[in-house]
Amino acid sequence: MFTGDLKNITMVTVNFSLKGKVALITGGSRGIGRAIALAFAEAGAKVAISARKQQDLDAVADEINSKGQECLPTIAHVAKMDESRALLNRVKSHFGRIDILVNNAGTNPYNGPLIDAEEWAWDIIMNVNLKGPFMLSLMAAKLMREQGGGNIINMASATGIRPSDFHIYGVSKAALIMLTQIMAREFGQYNIRVNAIAPGIITTRLSESLWKEPQNKEEIIKHCSLGRLGVPEDIAGAAIYLASDASKYVTGTTIIIDGGEKN
Ligand SMILES: NC(=O)c1ccc[n+]([C@@H]2O[C@H](COP(=O)([O-])OP(=O)(O)OC[C@H]3O[C@@H](n4cnc5c(N)ncnc54)[C@H](OP(=O)(O)O)[C@@H]3O)[C@@H](O)[C@H]2O)c1
Q1: Are 168 and 110 in contact (CB under 8 A)?
Q2: Which residues fall within 8 angstroms of residue 60, CB to CB, at 6 or more apart?
Q3: Per-residue model confidence (pLDDT) at position 263
Q4: Of all atoms in ligand 1, which is nearest to the CA of residue 159?
Q5: 31-42 helix and 54-65 helix, angle to the nearest 10 degrees
Q6: pTM (2 d.p.)
Q7: Does residue 10 lie within any of the structural domains?
Q8: What is the pLDDT of residue 212?
């Protein structure tokens, strides 16, 4: 209880700045990844973004550069290990280091009934959503260990916490949440923090089939405590928190950002 005696109050300065940090965001060319790249740049980070299409990457890089902030766009398929390795090498040689890796690129090419799912769907989803982030994290963690520390953020999903119709996708995200916890346990000794974000439905191309139809949109809103759809910018604040010293004692956790899903 506050007694009116100011000398007993300790002032805490919380540092959300990313000044001087180098961040790589996969899938940074649109949607959630783009919002995080813009927010990180605004918070002072030098930003590298990757995806498969150069044109989309260049558009985001131009947007960031036009504000006088630095952005390096690089094509890399997240499930191709040689491309991931080349990506990290490019970031390291351009900026000299890598402090933050956001494993954000993700995909979901199959939403039909689980019983009809085929092997190709499992392979693509697991390779892009799980194996890609796994291998890129290992490669980045080795560089971070040499540097004396770093920070990894995995873009999971609420579907990795609660079962949904996005079955295989949900399994990949559940595994990513467990991978986050396991990496956090081991990488803590290298001063590398590993956390995850689990968004609910956010209006991006990936989830378009869910919210584009007005009827579906209304149904989603009905089940959201805050009564609206999420937008990519809703994820950026948590990403800055996890990437910055504001969360310096946080590792192995998953932040759910879903507007408060109601059943
Ligand atoms: N939107 C949602 O409702 C929602 C909810 C929960 C979690 N998430 C997760 O949030 C992350 C971002 O998704 P989003 O909604 O922002 O989707 P999005 O708008 O479709 O963006 C996906 C990004 O990932 C890139 N990408 C896709 N496949 C790739 C690959 N194989 N290699 C490299 N880059 C690839 C895309 O660029 P290219 O196509 O040019 O490669 C794009 O930059 C994903 O991990 C997703 O699972 C989204």
Answers
A1: yes
A2: 28, 29, 30, 34, 37, 38, 49, 71, 73
A3: 76
A4: 6
A5: 30
A6: 0.96
A7: no
A8: 94
The CB density around residue 60, as the number of other CB atoms within 10 Å, is 24
Which residues make beta-bridge pairs with 24? 48, 101
* Strand order across the 254-257 sheet: 71-75, 46-51, 22-26, 100-103, 150-155, 192-199, 254-257
Q: Best mutation site among 26, 29, 32 for ligand 1, i.e. most ligand atoms within 8 A of its Cβ? A: 32
8 within domain boundaries: no
Reduce the DSSP state of residue 102 to 3 states and report it.
strand
For residue 230, what is the DSSP state? B
Q: What angle do CA 235, 237, 242 make, to 5 degrees?
A: 100
Count up the domains in the chain and report the number. 1
> Do the beta carbons of residue 15 and residue 246 sit within 8 Å?
yes
The CA distance from 78 to 93, in Å, is 19
Distance 260 CA to ligand 1 centre (A): 22
Residue of minimum CA distance from atom 25 in ligand 1: 27
Catalytic entry in 110, 169, 190, 249: 169
256 pLDDT band, cuts 50/70/90, is very high
Average pLDDT, the chain: 96
- Cβ contact 28:72 at 8 Å: no
What is the tens place of the pLDDT at every residue in 181-237?
999 999 999 999 999 999 999 999 999 999 999 999 999 999 999 999 999 999 999
Q: Is 6 inside any structural domain?
A: no
Known catalytic membership, residue 241: no
CATH of the domain at 159: 3.40.50.720
- For ligand 1, atom 39, the nearest C-alpha belongs to 52
